[in-house]
Amino acid sequence: MIGGESPDVGDVRLDIDVIEVLIQTGDMVEKEQTLAVLETDKASMDLPSTDAGIVKDVFVKVGDKVSEGALIISLEVQSAESPVAAVKQQEKTAAPVSSSAPTSAPVKQSVAASNSNVAVVSQSGKSAHASPSVRLFARELGVDISQITQGSGRKGRILKDDVKNFIKQVMTSGAPLQGGAGIPPIPAVDFSKFGEIEEQKLSKIQRLTGQNLSRVWLNLPLVTYHDEADISEMEAFRKALNVDKSTEIKVTGLIFIVKALVAVMQHFPKINSSLSPDGESLILKKYFNVGIAVDTPNGLVVPVLKGVDKKGIAELTRDLSELSEKARNGKLLPADMRGGCITISSLGGIGGKAFTPIVNAPEVAILGGPLK
Asked: Where is the Lipoyl-binding domain (predicted)?
């Protein structure tokens, strides 16, 4: 039998957090397999097994705090050598030290926890590899790394990209999250304890919008740029157009923004593109359709103005008015909300100067501002 003890972590000698226990009584473990993960305020460290054998007892659980030298597990080794051996870890930067003492003497071994690759057992029963930094990254995102059965690194090592791709797969497939994978849920609260409440069911549009925005937030690296523009001349021209009593069309500033945005897209074609599904190329679009985010009683919808580059101010104003009316009355057809190249999200009557809208993927950009 051998005992696994908590490591020497330098200046921090007390209250080392046990954040993962990867084995249980009766498990067969291999040499160098990670038994538990410990964490201080400075580092995350893996506690590997120095021998192959059967776990007889586990003396800690997740959430425990242990001190240096505390007993973690007892292991029945598979050989007739040393009847009793103490296993410790030196400081994480020390190199492994082989013992030259008799087999009955204690054995001291160190682990370079910050850079070593450690084995974890996946649900398929195969051993996958991940560095402590990747394991920490997965924990921060709420991912059970044992569910990632194969990594893309050398010899199947799990990389950060593998963790990200696993989250994308879960989000897009709609599969239930198991074993703690995915984003940790927000704790449930009984609000009725604090006063009167009313519960309203979300509409289908609201539910789908929430799922889509969450998926985009996880998939895309979002960058926001704020700037201001002097539109005094544009506004004067718009008012002059609306003075004409011969037409019922009331031109809004938003239509001018739509036309200006298309001009920018024509000058910078990559704005009017989407990434191919395999991530190997850009799909450049030769058409110019602009989605307009519209807030309705049932939720946010994005009808699309088609062929903006081929239409004038008056025609676009009529199109936008018709689409907005259909959106408010819940009469938009699926075709009315497809084919967008870029989206405009306006603060409208809310006011304010700037905000950060979420990109309407697979589009690559979105324009937001106090547009009316």
From this structure: 1-76
Q: What is the C-alpha separation between 39 and 136, in angstroms, rounded?
A: 10
Place of tokens 């009331």: 250
Element (H, E) at 73: strand 71-77
pTM, two decimals, is: 0.51
pLDDT cut 90: percent of the chain above it = 24
Mean pLDDT of 279-307: 91
CA distance 268 to 23: 55
**Which residues, in sequence order, are CB contacts of 181 under 8 Å at separation 6+?**
142, 143, 144, 147, 166, 170
Q: Does domain 206-216+224-369 have CATH number 3.40.50.150?
A: no
In this prediction, residue 14 carries a pLDDT of: 56
Assess if CATH 2.40.50.100 describes domain 2-173. Answer: yes
The rounded Cα 35 to chain-centroid distance in angstroms is: 27
Sign of the Cα torsion 324, 330, 331, 333 reads positive
Strand partners, 279: none
Six-digit token string for 218: 């996880």
The DSSP string of 286-342 is: SS--EEE-EEETTEEE--EE--GGG--HHHHHHHHHHHHHHHHTT---GGGG---SE
Q: Distance between CA 63 and CA 19 in Å, rounded?
A: 6
